[in-house]
Amino acid sequence: MGLLLFSAAATGQIVGSSSVRNPVVVFNSPGTKQVNVQVCNEFGCTNVVHTVVVLDPMPRISSLASVPSLLGRGQTVTLSAQASGRPPLTYNWAFSGPANFTLTGNPLIWDTSLLPLGTYSLRLDVKNVDGTTSSTPFTVVLQRMTFSDVPPTHWAWQYVETLYSNGITTGCALGAYCPTNSVLRSEMAVFLTRASHGSTFVPTPPAGLFADVGTVYWAAPQIEQIYNDGLTTGCANNPLRFCPGNLLSRAEMAVFLVRAKHGAGFTPPAPIGRFADVPVDFWAAGWIEQLYLDGITTGCAANPLRFCPTDNVSRDQMAAFLVRTFGLTGP
């Protein structure tokens, strides 16, 4: 003869018993349970205690993998979660916003390439035969991303997108902008020509004004255009040269941008030493301080205020400077 006693482990309280051989036991709540088996005959009794962990059959979401709140269209994100409950579990990711749709699976890859831009609310529903549980909805903003290396989280994203929408840049390679690359003087000529005259402007054929810029050089028309516009006098004389392959310094950039904003005949006022690293006798001090007065630069560092005049200009920095200089507006 045998006797089974069923108890809750925390209290030891007996919650049920059976003297039937191989009984079916139904627990009404999750938790850790004890099954006490007592087997007796004419010689005595033997007791065996078994611990049983009873899981909640309802689905429960224990964690969600982090999803960025700001994405660029074309980025992919892995959606994943940890959940418990009676298997099988079905994971439905419900999106509402500019487009309403549901993705099923865990984990899964969310590809944003074909979605309309805007703000989406995302919720996870986990379902089994016992019911459904849902996560707290969270928001994801999907924005334009023309270049894969300048997502909306990049500090210069708005500036780069504005350059692109105004036809001033097409990037450095297919789908890329190369934001940290340094700007060449030849590239600056192209930027300035497009920003000054418009993206559809076609310069006149080059005449070979510079000894180091042949007429077949890729940026020769734009280099000669900014010379004719009075934005540059080149990098050297006798013979006249432009140094198109040289990297552009921040000091040189200041001169280009101030002339582009105020005109070729503009002369900046005498400098007063606003920047700790730009003494008043520095060759470009007046132009650098004018760039500051125009609100185009705030310098490269503060306390004390510095400009870093000999540093090279990166392409992301150049985007910001051009947008501010020409007052360009973006999408």
Describe the structure.
The protein has 6 helices and 14 strands. The protein is of the alpha+beta class and 331 residues long. Strands 6, 9, 10, 12, 13 and 14 form a 6-stranded mixed sheet that branches. A 4-stranded antiparallel sheet has the order 2-1-3-4, with no helix packed on it. Strands 5-8 form a two-stranded antiparallel sheet. A hairpin with a 4-residue loop joins strand 9 and strand 10.
Roughly how many Å is the radius of gyration?
Answer: 35 Å
Supply the number of structural domains. Answer: 3
Largest sheet: 6 strands, mixed
Coarse shape: elongated
Average per-residue pLDDT, rounded, comes to 92
The percentage of residues in β strands lies in 25-35%
The residue fraction in helices comes out at 10-25%
Query: How many β-strands, per DSSP?
Result: 14
**Span between termini:** 83 Å
Report the structural category. alpha+beta
Helices, by number, come to 6
Protein traits:
6-stranded mixed β-sheet, Immunoglobulin-like, 6 helices, disordered N terminus, 14 strands, single chain, alpha+beta, 26% strand, elongated, 331 residues
